[in-house]
Amino acid sequence: MSRPPFCEPPAEVRAHRLATRRGEFAVLDAVPADRAPVATALLVPGYTGSKEDFIALLVPLAEAGIRAVAVDGRGQYESVCAEGPAAFGLGALAEDVLAQAAALGEGPLHLVGHSLGGLISRGAVLRAVAAGSAPPFASLTLIGSGPGRIVRRQRWRARALGAVLPLLGARRIWWLTRRGVEPGEVGAFLHRRWLANAPTQLRTTGRALCYEPDRVDLLARVGLPIHVLSGERDGVWPVPDIDRMAERLGAHRTVIAGAEHSPNAEAPAATAAALLTFWAALPSPRPPASPDPTERDRSAAG
């Protein structure tokens, strides 16, 4: 569970609902105050997370001329939606990201996914290409996200949560694992967010984290500029695995000093600076390559 440094949006950030062809999603939206944005960043959170995991990035990005939109995914925190496992498969969540991208309008759009959000964002890129169209993104940044399934210890934890959640319920699990609500604004927020997550979403995406295959080579064929960013340590995907993934992708690589699995929340100033540096160095957009037709069906199933 990512822990944001604060959870109340700054005055420059607007909380609202983004209407898309796949329903409404709760967002935090920061727009440059004195100029038209040069680009938009769509920020997709990870497992048990929410838009607030990016809250400390929003103003720095907007001050640099980037409209920054952090979203609660389907079944996360304040994005209410219909239940059912099919609604929370990575393919469905990737389609949600494509719908969010379409709703944000024209102009360069940088996609940023943290952890599970990185797998979902990767799926959005691959699904767009598999459908025969260019991805609607100028770049993809993967934060604390790896090539496939999570490490064994984390798989055990995700399976255990999936097994006990229907039996005990989210409230009892919180009290058994957290021993109460810690004082302060952030502690109250973490408790409120945990209870608001759709249980079926937690169980379904937890399973996806345990079984997601390595799709790195397929993503590399797309030709999209990619940025792989992580902390110095990561208990969900080992940093050496993330390093090798970046090499296979031919990606720009950033390691945030002192950070672990969530540099967006743990070291937001350094993370915002790394994002802006990557985006500023991008060449003019070029059409992505189409994948091998034999791979197309597999990517669409993600």
From TrEMBL:
Compositional bias (Basic and acidic residues) at which positions? 293-302
Going by the UniProt record, its keywords in alphabetical order are: Hydrolase
Task: List the Pfam families hit by this protein, alphabetically.
Answer: Abhydrolase_6
Which BP terms does GO give this entry? glycerolipid catabolic process
For whether the record's keyword set contains Hydrolase, the answer is yes
Q: Which GO terms describe its molecular function?
A: triacylglycerol lipase activity
Q: Which residues form the AB hydrolase-1 domain?
A: 42-274
Q: Where is this region: Disordered?
A: 283-302
Q: Where is the signal peptide?
A: none
Designated name of the protein: Alpha/beta fold hydrolase
